[in-house]
Amino acid sequence: MRVFATGASGHIGSAVVPELIRAGHDVVGLARSDEAAAAVRAMGAEARHGNLTDLDGLREAARDADAIVHLGFQHEGIASGRFAEVTAQDEEVVHAICGELVDTGKAFLGIGMGRVEDLVNHPNPRAKVALAIHGYTQRGVRTVLVAVPNVTHSERDRSGFIPQYVRIARQAGVAGYVGDGANTWAAGHTLDVARVWALAVAKAPAGSQVTGATEAGVPVRTIAESVARHLGIEAVSMSAEQAAEHFKAFPFIGIDVRMPNEATRELLGWEPTHPTLLADLDAGFYFSR
Ligand SMILES: NC(=O)c1ccc[n+]([C@@H]2O[C@H](COP(=O)([O-])OP(=O)(O)OC[C@H]3O[C@@H](n4cnc5c(N)ncnc54)[C@H](OP(=O)(O)O)[C@@H]3O)[C@@H](O)[C@H]2O)c1
């Protein structure tokens, strides 16, 4: 298949593209800079210069492809307080691309957030984007929602949950968690997550909802204790109010995420093979940079 990938130069995209090429696909990666284009070509894909804000360019790329893997997201908008705006733009991207795929049976793979039936009126605006994608299933598009674990970990992870958490713990001299720290984060190694995307391109039926999580939910206290041990500091329980103040720039410490993967393993014949989150923490790279 000819696969058009947005976000091809990103953390997850740069793991997905080689998987797709290994599986025999021709991959075209969206690149908004010469640097991103060089990274895309270095993986053996074709670079298509463009931007997520250029909807006509995306429509044209979609017409030329058999499958679209949508991993691009304007994360810098989150840091600058424009989360709702960039998420609304993401929804426009979905409609621009999927609008070209109506009644073609071509595949569109985008970011899922758990079961679609739980997403109506969800507080996270990205749920609306997932619903928009799923809506094209009835319009002749092979939609697939891939729920990416909130902790996608590996040496390639430079700005995910763990690097942010380690930075705050190091600066504060304590590794905090909320209450008893029993809330959990879903985790998956970048390369296992990438494999799910590639398998889903090949064989997920229309309307599928799959996950790249290899660990459904790791207790945040367990993560805090590992980080504390590696940094030589204490793991400390905080009230929700203390945590809101302590983790100001990282308002995710108390979220409770579980992503069971049995159905995905069954559907795709996926066997995760890469290290667990605690093994990656023990490998040390999160603390040596
Ligand atoms: N990593 C995680 O732990 C995690 C967890 C849950 C969900 N997700 C979701 O998974 C998806 C991929 O995440 P990621 O970690 O791979 O993100 P990432 O490393 O930030 O990559 C984002 C990609 O989007 C591209 N991009 C951003 N703005 C663009 C624009 N205006 N025009 C064209 N391309 C643009 C970036 O290009 P440049 O290379 O030029 O910057 C990059 O290729 C995102 O939707 C993310 O929210 C990630």
TrEMBL record:
SUPFAM superfamilies: NAD(P)-binding Rossmann-fold domains. Residues 6-79 form the NAD-dependent epimerase/dehydratase domain. GO terms for cellular component: cytoplasm. GO terms for molecular function: aldehyde dehydrogenase (NAD+) activity. PANTHER family: NAD(P)-BINDING DOMAIN-CONTAINING PROTEIN-RELATED (PTHR48079:SF6), PROTEIN YEEZ (PTHR48079). This is 3-beta hydroxysteroid dehydrogenase.
